[in-house]
Amino acid sequence: MKAMILAAGLGKRMRPLTDYCPKPLLPVAGKPLIVHHLERLREAGIDEVVINVSYRAEQITDALGDGGAFGLHIHWSRETTPLETGGGIQQALPLLGEEPFLLINGDIWCEALPDPQALKGDDLAHLVLVKNPLHHPDGDFGLMTGRVNQTSTERLTYAGISVIHPALLAGQPPGAFPLAPLLRSAIENQQVSGEQYSGHWVDVGTPERLAELESHLRHGG
Fold first, then answer.
1. Is 108 helix (H, G, I), strand (E, B) or coil?
2. What crossing angle do the helices spanning 57-64 and 33-43 adopt, rounded to 10°?
3. φ and ψ of 102, to 5 deg
4. Residues 174 and 80: beta-carbon distance below 8 Å
5. How far is CA 64 from CA 19, 59, 74, 121, 129, in A?
6. What's the pTM?
7. Closest CA to 96 of 137, 55, 49
8. What span, in angstroms and rounded, lies between the C-alpha atoms of 83 and 173?
9. CA spacing 20 to 30 A to 216: which of 69, 81, 99, 201?
């Protein structure tokens, strides 16, 4: 299985830290945030990774190169302007191939990796969900007996980790578009499974949350 790391965002909420450094390269526990992802993927036996880049792209490509230093082969998907999540994945599909792939938001911290064989039947996605953080109290989706829904009163938050089938994006015109509406449509069609992860997870979206993660890891969390 291949993996895709989303790393093309502008990192506006992380300013001033991202004024001169793209968010994936911000240091956490002594190494860039995205390197933690790469090392975790390699440990899981994944050796081909697609990374989309836009903002300060050259800094990221120069830092990571072809992935050889991490025991991986990195394929770069360069976006002249950010294409949002859906458009970014669609542009990268020729690099990802026709099989399901692991999708990771580059600005999260999480040790969870779903089973590469998570997709069953005609499912188009498998989502990792977590308890709602303070900054997202209403959550995103419900989860019952391994199936994701939009009707449960108890909601969980999408962790930014999933297994995606390329068919989820079938028929979408090129250009910028979000992934969320496609996921919601697939959920309505009973084509999305899910799991809840109870370990440590952080959406590293602000300088404060980055500092909290650094403290957590420094103290053996």
1. strand
2. 40
3. -85, 135
4. no
5. 20, 9, 8, 36, 29
6. 0.94
7. 49
8. 12
9. 69
Residues 64-115: pLDDT tens digits? 999 999 999 999 999 998 899 999 999 999 999 999 999 999 999 998 899 9
CA 22 to CA 54: how far, in whole Å? 10
Task: Write 58-65 long-range contacts (CB < 8 A, 24+).
Answer: 59/21, 59/22, 59/25, 60/7, 60/22, 60/24, 60/25, 60/34, 63/25, 63/32, 64/34, 64/35, 64/38
pLDDT at 82: 87
Token pair 């079938």 is found at: 170
Give me 163's structure tokens.
């297994």
As a whole number of angstroms, the distance between CA 158 and CA 201 comes to: 11
List the structure tokens of 110.
């999480």
What's the one-letter identity of residue 106? Answer: G
Model confidence pLDDT, tens digit, residues 18-71: 677 888 898 898 999 999 999 999 999 999 999 999 988 899 999 999 999 999
Residue 169 CB contacts under 8 Å (≥ 6 apart), including other chains: 86, 89, 90, 93, 182
- What are the tokens at 10? 């502008």
